[in-house]
Amino acid sequence: MSITPHDERFMAAAIRLSRWHLGRTATNPSVGCLIVRDGVIVGRAVTALSGRPHAETQALAEAGALARGATAYVTLEPCSHHGRTPPCAEALIAYGVARVVISVTDPDPRVSGRGITMLREAGIEVDAGALEAEGRHSLAAYLTRQTKNRPYVTLKLAVSADGMIGREGAGQVAITGPEARAQVQALRAETDAILVGIGTAITDDPLLTVRMPGLESQSPIRIVLDPSLALPLTSKLVETAREVPVIVVASEEVWPLSADAEGLPPSALPGISPTGGEIGKRRDPNSPVSDGDGFALRQDVGQGANPDPISPLMGEMPGRAEGGTSPADMDSRRAALEAAGVEVLYCNPYHPEVLLPALATRGISSLLVEGGAKTARLFLEAGLVDRIQLYQAPVVIGERGIESPLDATDIPSGFAHKGTLMFGEDRLDEYERGL
Questions:
Q1: pTM for the whole thing?
Q2: Ordered DSSP codes for 313-379
Q3: E strands, 145-274, in order
Q4: d(CA 184, CA 89)
Q5: Cα–Cα distance between 367 and 364 in angstroms, integer?
Q6: Which among 413, 420, 419 has a CA at the least distance from the CA of 434?
Q7: In the predicted structure, residue 201 carries a pLDDT above the cut 80
Q8: What mean pLDDT comes out for the span 399-404?
Q9: Are 126 and 157 in contact, with CB atoms under 8 Å apart?
Q10: CB-based contacts of 83: which residues, under 8 Å, 6+ apart?
């Protein structure tokens, strides 16, 4: 039986349902499932908070006996392996569903195609690929972490009418209006982590939390590219680190010498990533590194990355211990940050092709890059941005404006314009790469 317009309507509803828990299901994808009998929805569910139970088992439990002979609409191929919970494919078989319609097959090697095979061997009709493009969009973060070993990266920029994203020395400057800012809060709520550079963290002293009423508990992990551990202990980020997690990404050059026998940061050890997982190769001793004004990208960059050197991030480069700050001072800063609840990750902050896999090992599937023209340019030049949200506002910044690294006339190649929305007087254009 082929996929019909009737199937597509129910799958569209399942995809909408799947978005309810984006950013809140840990390492598991947020999946939507509908159980439909005689054209009536008799069970529905989305993956539970923290990732369990899965959508299928909840929807089947709600449908009960009505699931027998029904059709299940699932946004991702039902799992077929035994983990902390039994396979969802087994549950669909046990409840006696007659047909399963799937949007996206699962790239997880433990599942990929096996769930479909298990269902068909049990005599259940299976149709895959219903609204697949829409399904892949809703599962973009999960699919990126599974296939590219890194989070899905969204770059958000708010640009004034004169092409600026802020004003030097002015701290936070409101460029967009309240409607657009509310939309950004909703984006934060469905994202695992948010990242800014140390310059933005110091100048703006942002909270980077979700402040929309009712969504405060969905604040993402906050990440600061902080090579020299310069984040002030009095900053809002540090003061709230025990309420909402904060990770500072420090330069490997400030790795405490007492940390291991050889005094080397984890990412310099053979076969070991900055987080202790086997996600990276030994650093090439011949890879180009600058004399302190900037770092060049390694040549073994991941899929979709640009192998050309990254332009130097002047003013935000790692401080060197021999440049006036002693190792003891660095150890003191690290200890003070950790005592306040901040996690210190030693991983070159300006090599995103190394940093992103390190974040993926922490279960971070989606990353929002929000702060700093230099940080935005870093990810753009590395070719590691998957989606661009470009807000354009009628506000004029004028003198001492900080020029945007991007505007609507110079979107990088490979991005497709996905649509335009208006929020008050502000225009949002969204661009995406193909998954």
A1: 0.82
A2: -TTSSPPPGGGT--HHHHHHHHHHHHHTT-EEEES-TT-HHHHHHHHHTTT--EEEEEE-HHHHHHH
A3: 152-159, 164-167, 193-197, 221-225, 246-250
A4: 37
A5: 7
A6: 413
A7: yes
A8: 91
A9: no
A10: none
Phi first, then psi, for residue 115 (nearest 5°) are -65, -45
Question: How do beta strands 152-159 and 387-392 pair?
Answer: parallel
pLDDT higher at 45 or 217:
45
Q: What is the pLDDT of residues 37-93, one digit of tens each?
A: 999 999 999 999 888 899 999 999 999 999 999 999 999 999 987 666 678 999 999
Per the DSSP assignment, residues forming a β-bridge with 388 are 155, 431
pLDDT of residue 83: 65
Other C-beta atoms closer than 10 Å to the C-beta of 400 total: 11
pLDDT confidence tier of residue 307, bands split at 50, 70 and 90: very low
Residue with tokens 């310069």: 230
The answer for residues whose C-beta is within 8 angstroms of residue 285's C-beta and 6 or more apart is none
The 3-state DSSP composition of the chain as helix, strand, coil percent (nearest 5) reads 30, 20, 50
Phi-psi label, residue 292: left if phi above 0, alpha if psi -120 to 50, beta otherwise: left
Looking only at the bridges linking them, the beta strands covering 99-104 and 71-76 are: parallel
User: Is 29 within 8 Å of 66 (Cβ atoms)?
Assistant: no
β-sheet with 40-46: strand ranges across:
40-46, 32-37, 71-76, 99-104, 125-128
Instruction: Give the residue from 283, 257, 263 showing the smallest Cα distance to 272.
Output: 283
Q: What is residue 382's predicted lDDT score, i.e. its pLDDT?
A: 95
In the predicted structure, residue 309 carries a pLDDT above the cut 50:
no
**What is the rounded distance in angstroms from the CA atom of residue 211 to the CA atom of residue 411?**
30
Preceding amide of 245 cis, omega within 30: no
Question: Which helix (H) or strand (E) segment is 345 a member of?
Answer: strand 343-346
Q: 114: which 2 tokens?
A: 């096996």
Express each pLDDT in 292-305 by its tens digit. Answer: 222 223 323 334 44
- Is residue 171 very low, low, confident or very high in pLDDT (cuts 50, 70, 90)? low
Amino acid sitting at position 117? T
Catalytic (active-site) positions: 56
CA distances from 317 to 193, 199, 295 (A): 22, 10, 9
